[in-house]
């Protein structure tokens, strides 16, 4: 140890002694996390749970477990951080330096706790932003290399949290293309459960970075302690849930360290992604509303603005369209009464026209014989018709059959010495390379410069990273997964800065890429290519735990066209509504129904998109699904009730509504009726007190298969 290190250690020891047994509290309205600076100078998490009203109680808390566990010391469970120091030593021992708490610009309470390794100078700062009213905490970590030479970060968690309660249940979400959002719940016993992905770009194709964790007992919608957790990282993530020998749970969240050892130069800082979570002690329903409220206010792009209804041409035409067909479809959009026409894949490429998914990706010029008037003509046509125009892009990808690939093969992630492997006939551009970042930014920038009338982008991402090798990163291949995502954020940051009012849909062959960091750049996400309404009931239900209706795009299509257009439309109305259908596939009655539904949606979208959501019946639990939205001041509410495959003799109980004012009288009206149809609900057009609606309920469910009812409930 040289003299500087010695002096630094003495100062650190003095600081540590001064703060011995100090408590640091990260609090929201309902939750406290309490950290203890112990006599040995190390930081422990003593508590996480319900808010503790009396500060004097803190001293009685158990000692706790090392807050941000390091590799190589005396706790043998999974560490949050593992640093290979320049001398090859792989141990890290962190002691407390100081902490600061202040109110941030967005009103959240920001706590930063600084820790340091006396021997190596490694600094670790634990950041927490507590959103008191929404009961949401976001947390991340900064790691500074205090050495004179580079070190290797082998593990670098965003967050480590310790839960006690003895019993835990984890709900995970799994799936695949057109099969997203399968929820399954299992108890966590001794040992580790890992949720992770290694897909790079379409990172969440098999599982999104979110989980539900029940503590103590298995939470229901209205009972139990439950945590909803979400990592803001648009790439490989990993959650590790480890139950130790005391039945305590250690939860580590962050970037997946798989093939991602990260070299940190002298004095450089590594900032991890943010982990967002809420704790509820009243079950899942409250937890979801916490996240929805927080997201709309602080995280989701344009979270407090409205959303545009649209007609998309993907399923109506696939690649087979020309200017005339598109103009006709715009006419359909006008007839439906939606706000926008969205042109999907297939509009670009000349040497290799994009007439299918095998070629053209990367060549972002309009196909001359398909669109002779270019995008100009389409924007003008939309403007003439009084609607907005949006356009699809997939700017991170390339088909090997493209001019881009021919010109810039070094921009493509591919192994120099092996055959290429394609996913949907395409490959991923290397966004770790700043030139590629410029190119991807340029795709949006060029379109917006040439056609400022473009009002919306659908940003797709259909391939995971295959053939993992960056020609730009050379000997730092293990940086690729991480630097790719940083490159993507650079691009999205530039777009947001230059076009702050441009709404964009996040799409990845469905919802193969979805997280709250991405949603700070995107206003909404495409929940699934599967638009069969029966499937969508499950998929949208699963996403509703984390994302408000405003963020969740749902379109009426011809998937499962054996179901009525009413059933299909009613399902989409629980999200950000759109259509992807030709009016020629609809009868006059169906069209009239949709027109009416669009009008209703326009009137009710403040309730559906910005209101409180209550899941009343889960499609996972039986042949019905019911969701209710309640608007501000509990003046209006909308209920969506679906019967899927009830049995013939099934007896149904009334549906008890939630979130209303007991003393207010509400008129109940069934809306979204087929032309000429009359409501068969006894409650239609009657007035009830909120108390009645919440305690006696309404008979909304029946044994009529694949039927639905939408109720508008208005305070008198
Ligand atoms: C996958 C998306 O999920 C679809 O909606 C559509 O945009 C296609 N890509 C286009 O290739």
What spatial form do the alpha-carbon principal axes imply?
globular
Global structural class: alpha+beta
Largest sheet: 10 strands, antiparallel
Number of domains: 3
Separation of termini? 77 Å
- The CATH topology assignment of the largest domain is TIM Barrel
Radius of gyration: 27 Å
Properties at a glance:
716 residues; alpha+beta; Beta-galactosidase, Chain A, domain 5; TIM Barrel; ten-stranded antiparallel sheet; eight-stranded parallel β-barrel; 37 strands; globular; binds (2R,3S,4R,5S)-2-(hydroxymethyl)piperidine-3,4,5-triol
Short description:
21% of the residues lie in helices and 30% in strands.
List the helices and strands and how they pair.
Blueprint: H1 3-18, E1 22-27, E2 31-37, E3 43-50, E4 65-66, E5 81-84, E6 95-103, E7 109-116, E8 123-131, E9 136-144, E10 151-156, E11 159-163, E12 168-174, E13 182-188, E14 191-196, E15 210-215, E16 225-232, E17 237-243, E18 249-255, E19 262-264, E20 269-271, E21 274-280, H2 284-299, E22 310-312, H3 314-317, H4 323-336, E23 340-343, H5 374-385, E24 388-393, E25 397-398, H6 403-407, E26 427-428, H7 434-450, E27 454-459, H8 480-498, E28 504-506, E29 524-526, H9 533-544, E30 552-556, H10 565-572, E31 576-579, H11 588-610, E32 612-617, E33 624-630, E34 636-643, E35 665-671, E36 686-689, H12 690-695, E37 707-715
Parallel strand pairs: 22-23, 22-31, 23-24, 24-27, 27-28, 28-29, 29-30, 30-31
Antiparallel strand pairs: 1-2, 2-3, 3-4, 5-10, 6-7, 7-8, 8-9, 9-20, 9-21, 10-19, 11-18, 12-13, 12-15, 14-17, 15-16, 16-21, 17-18, 25-26, 32-33, 33-34, 34-37, 35-36, 35-37
Helix pairs in contact: 4-5, 7-8, 9-10, 10-11
(2R,3S,4R,5S)-2-(hydroxymethyl)piperidine-3,4,5-triol binds at residues 314, 344-345, 392, 460, 462, 507, 509-510, 526, 529.
